[in-house]
Amino acid sequence: MFKHILIPTDGSDPAMRAVTTGIQLAAQLGSRVRALHVLTPLPAVNFFADVLQGDVYRKHARERAEANLAKVSEMARAANVPCEVEYLFDNRPYAVIAGVATKYGCDLIVMDAHECNNLERLLLSNTTHKVILSCDVPVLVCH
């Protein structure tokens, strides 16, 4: 059925619940997973201030992504699920998620919808909604 599951994560509690669901599903199906952390770059003013400070934001963002992806790798290893990880910088996380799913032939995306206000909770998160509209890969939304 599903052989290659993409699990986008930002390391938040809702995202980690989706990671758990995705890994459990992969274990049951004998699938492999690809964990993805999309980091958004700083706006231009902040970017130039950061450059003067030695690119501190990007360094901390990479460290945070690597730590989150290491947790996902460990969870997958504990469940005997093959796992590859990747992080990318982009202003449009939904486009990166859809692109990675296509690039690697993922046949399912498992992600959360953790926006906090009631309207977005009804409509799914903005990123989740855009992923659903941006690719032909089925999306399992965890709440």
Automatic annotation (TrEMBL):
InterPro entries: Rossmann-like_a/b/a_fold, Universal_stress_UspA, UspA
Coiled-coil annotated spans: none
CDD domains associated with the record: USP-like
Domain of life: Bacteria
UspA domain segment(s): 1-143
PANTHER family listed in its UniProt record: STRESS RESPONSE PROTEIN NHAX (PTHR46268), UNIVERSAL STRESS PROTEIN HP_0031 (PTHR46268:SF15)
Similarity comment text for this entry: Belongs to the universal stress protein A family.
Protein name: Universal stress protein
Natural source organism: Dyella koreensis
